[in-house]
Amino acid sequence: MRRVYLDHSATTPVDPRVVEALLPFLTAKFGNPSSVHFYGQEARAAVDRARREVAGLVGARPNEIVFTSGGTEANNLAVRGHCEQAADQGRHVITTAIEHSSVRGICEALERRDWEVTRLPVYGDGVVRVEDVRAALRPDTVLVTVMLANNEVGTVQPVAEIAALVRELREAGQKHLRLHTDAVQAAAGMRVDVDELGCDLLSLSAHKLYAPKGVGALYVRRGVRLAPQNIGGHQERERRGGTESVPLIVAFGEAARLTRVELEERTRRIRSLRERFETGVESRVADIVYNGDRARRLPGVSNISFRFIEGEGLLINLDMQGVAVSTGSACSSGSLEPSPVIRALGRDDELARGSIRFSLGKDTTEEEIDYVLEVLPRAVENLRRLSPLYQKAVGSRQYALRSGS
């Protein structure tokens, strides 16, 4: 069976060049970076090189990068770490209705500890409004956390404009107010620069960049203090205790370097393929709705709701024909509830349950897109043929045509 992978927003295949970079640190170069002898210093030098590469990807200084186990830990360290540090200055957090489940979960945990959380809407285009952020800011607000690009619909948020509001209030005396952005999805599909964004904290994850799972990073702007979430070690400037995973960090560094060098060409190719895909879907499948702003989004993400069918059924049908897609965030896989992100766009239950995310990668080919365009319409037609709602809608249309209405 032919297999096509269109779920790069969930994870990416590891680039062979990344594998080549990490392999020596699984065998001969096995030292602990905290050791003072040759083996330890060899490992320390490798971690330092990787730190420089990850910093270079987002325009940061190396000493502003904290390695973590992934995006979820980076989000926890940023949100919980800052809130715990600033709790005596205020207990109010601003976020959006479309954040990743890790940020949503942290905010819910804060509420159980008597924090107040304001969740801003994103409207039909999936983009938060800067004026809504301005209206929500209060003297006791200590953190605004808004993702840079959404992981389900790909919409890019106005983080730089929000940062300007935060900076304005901080300069006016609200010293503990900070801005965090989850850039886990964004870093693979757009240029990210922490100074241009103006953020104080920024989360990254290696497995979205063609590196292995299990390693990520948090950018912490110089001068920002965090309460550590891993206690008991001096590593990462005492912000994240625990022996560093040298092979994974090395892999992350190489993936960051390759992304920085190749990003422009990757995004050009992927955007072209996405346009080919969406044009083909529009000409072959009726009764579809695109989710999120089609202009202000990552180049490789296409989220489509198919009327009259369940997205889970379509996912399974496509998987049986070798095509891998998703119905939303991989971290929420298995949930029976409609995607909260799609619901936040104002979609009803039918459209929310019928949504599919197609996410393309740097190695996706035209032939793969054409194969998906061959099997997708048949899969949709087969499922709709079994849907009473679809049969009713077809009958109503036929009646309308006969009656001339």
3D architecture notes:
By secondary structure, the chain is α/β, with parallel strands linked by helices. It folds into two domains: 4-10 and 263-395, Aspartate Aminotransferase, domain 1 (Alpha-Beta Complex); 16-259, 3-Layer(aba) Sandwich (Aspartate Aminotransferase, domain 2), CATH 3.40.640.10. The chain has helices at residues 16-22, 38-58, 71-86, 101-111, 130-136, 159-171, 194-197, 235-238, 246-284, 311-320, 340-344, 349-353, 366-385, 388-403; strands at residues 4-5, 65-68, 92-96, 116-120, 141-145, 178-182, 201-205, 216-220, 288-290, 301-306, 323-324, 355-359. The protein has a seven-stranded mixed beta sheet with strand order 2-8-7-6-5-3-4, with helices on both faces. Strands 9-10-12 form a three-stranded antiparallel beta sheet. It starts with a strand and ends with a helix.
